[in-house]
Design goal:
Elements (H helix, E strand, L loop, with lengths): L19 H7 L40 H14 L7 E5 L2 H12 L5 E5 L6 H10 L3 E5 L15 E5 L11 H10 L3 E5 L17 E5 L13 E5 L2 H14 L5 H10 L3 H20 L5 E4 L9 H7 L6 E5 L3 H10 L4 E2 L9 E4 L12 E5 L5 H17 L1
Helix pairs in contact: 2-7, 3-6, 8-11, 10-11
GO molecular function, one term: lyase activity
Pfam families: Cys_Met_Meta_PP
Protein name: Cystathionine gamma-lyase
Length: about 400
C-alpha cells in the first residue's frame, strides 16, 4: 500500500527560505495523497453531516466555513506572513465586504477612525455609515504620512498605500508604530501591492486587507476579498461579521482564486516591469502631465516605496489635457480595454473622473498594465496619444 507523503507546502524547511515563485505554486495545498489531485476541486455544500457537538466540528454549515475557503485562506496567510503560524485569514465575497468587515465590526459609537482622504472612492459611503453610527471619522492624505496628525484619540487607523488612484505612498511602519503608541489598531489596504509586493503585517499592521478581484486573482473573472491578521482575537469579530451579514465567497470563486495564485509571482513581476516602461514612455510626451508610478526613481513616493515594497505594482496614473482628449486617447487604444478594474493579465485604463467620486482632473487616467509585451503597449500608447492629439 502506498503511503501519503507528509505536507511540504510553503513552510520553509530548516535552514531554507523559499522564494516567492516557489511559495506561490504550493501555498495552501493539502498533504499529498496517492492518486489525489494536487489541489482538490471546489466543495459545493450548504450543509455537512454533523453528528454530536458542533463546537468541535471543522465544518458545520455553508455560511460558516467551507474546505475550499480553508485552502485559500491558508494560502493567503502563507503569502502575507511567511512562516508565521499565528496568522488568521478570512475570505469574503468581495474586497468591499472585507473592508466593511474590519471597519464596521471594530468601530462603535464614540470611537475615532482615521481614513485616507485620497483612498478608494467607496470609502466615502463607508465613512457616512460610520458617522451615522456616532463614530468620529478623520481624514488626511496618504502622502507625507499626513495621517500622523489625526491619530490622537483614534481607535483605528486605515491606510491605503499605494493609494488608489493617485499612487501616493506612506511609511507604514512609522504610522503603525505611532498608532499603536496611542492605542489604535492599524489596517492596511494591500490591494494594489499584493502580498508579493508588500507585507503590511511584517511592517507592523494588525490587518492586511485586499480585494482579490484585482491582481491577486488577475484574470478579471472573480470577485473576492480577504482580511489577514496575526491573532484569533483580531480575526474573530471579522469572521463573525462575515457570518452575520452572509458576505461569503462562492466555493467556485474561492477555488479559482486559489488556482490563480500559482502564477501570481510571474504575473506581478511582468506587470511591474511593463508598468515602469509605460510610465517612462508617458513622461516623454508633451501632452501628458502628472505621471505617477512608485517605481520611477524621481516619483515623490519612490524613496518610501523602495524601503517597504518589493515590487511597485502594475498601475500608472497620469493626466491628459482635458476630458475630450482623454476619451479620444482611450478610444484609440487597441491593446488596452476601457474598464474600471486593475491588476488583470489584460491591460485596462479609464478616465477616473467619469465616476465622480475621486478628486482628480477631468483628464486623469488610471492605467493597469497587463502581461502583454511592454514594447507593444508602449507603441500602442504612443499611437493613441498621437490619434487623440489629431482630434
Amino acid at each position: 500500500m502506498t503511503e501519503a507523503k507528509s505536507a511540504r507546502g510553503t513552510q520553509d524547511a530548516p535552514g531554507v527560505r523559499y522564494g516567492d515563485g516557489t511559495r506561490v505554486v504550493r501555498a495552501g495545498l493539502p498533504d499529498e495523497e496517492p492518486y489525489a489531485p494536487p489541489m482538490p476541486g471546489p466543495v459545493l455544500a450548504a450543509h455537512y453531516h454533523l453528528p454530536g457537538d458542533p463546537s468541535t466540528a471543522p465544518y458545520t454549515y455553508g455560511r460558516d466555513n467551507n474546505p475550499t475557503w480553508t485552502g485559500l485562506e491558508r494560502a493567503i496567510g502563507e503569502l502575507e506572513a511567511p512562516g508565521d503560524e499565528t496568522v488568521r485569514t478570512t475570505v469574503f465575497a468581495s474586497g468591499m465586504a472585507a473592508i466593511s468587515a474590519v471597519l464596521l465590526s471594530r468601530a462603535k459609537p464614540g470611537d475615532v477612525v482615521v481614513l485616507p482622504s485620497d483612498g478608494y472612492n467607496l470609502l466615502v459611503p463607508v465613512r457616512e455609515r460610520l458617522e451615522g453610527w456616532g463614530v468620529e471619522v478623520r481624514t488626511a492624505p496618504t502622502g507625507g504620512d499626513a495621517q500622523l496628525e489625526a491619530l490622537d484619540g483614534a481607535s483605528l487607523l486605515w491606510i491605503e498605500s499605494p493609494s488608489n488612484p493617485g499612487l501616493d505612498v506612506c511609511d507604514i511602519r512609522r504610522l503603525a508604530d505611532a498608532a499603536h503608541e496611542r492605542g489604535a489598531l492599524v489596517a492596511v489596504d494591500n490591494t494594489l501591492a499584493t502580498p508579493l509586493g508588500q507585507r503590511p503585517l511584517e511592517l507592523g499592521a494588525d490587518y492586511a486587507v485586499a480585494s482579490g478581484t484585482k491582481a491577486l486573482t488577475g484574470h478579471g473573472d472573480v470577485l473576492l476579498g480577504y482580511v489577514a491578521c496575526r491573532s484569533e482575537e483580531l480575526a474573530a469579530p471579522v469572521r463573525l461579521w462575515r457570518k452575520t451579514v452572509g458576505a461569503i465567497p462562492g466555493p467556485v470563486e474561492a477555488w479559482l482564486a486559489h488556482r490563480s495564485l500559482a502564477t501570481l509571482e510571474l504575473r506581478t513581476a511582468r506587470q511591474a516591469a511593463g508598468a515602469l516602461a509605460v510610465a517612462e514612455a508617458l513622461r516623454g510626451r508633451s501632452e501628458v502631465s502628472g505621471v505617477r508610478h512608485p517605481g520611477l526613481p524621481d516619483d515623490p513616493a519612490h524613496e518610501t516605496a523602495a524601503r517597504q515594497m518589493r515590487r511597485f505594482g502594475c498601475v500608472v496614473s497620469f493626466t491628459l489635457p482635458d476630458k475630450g482628449f482623454a476619451e479620444r486617447f482611450l478610444d484609440a487604444l487597441r491593446l488596452v480595454d476601457d474598464a474600471t478594474s486593475f491588476g488583470g493579465v489584460r491591460s485596462t485604463a479609464e478616465r477616473r473622473g467619469r465616476w465622480g467620486g475621486d478628486d482628480v482632473p477631468e483628464g486623469f487616467v488610471r492605467m493597469s498594465v497587463g502581461v502583454e509585451d511592454a514594447a507593444d503597449l508602449v507603441a500602442d500608447v504612443h499611437a493613441a496619444l498621437d490619434a487623440a492629439a489629431r482630434g
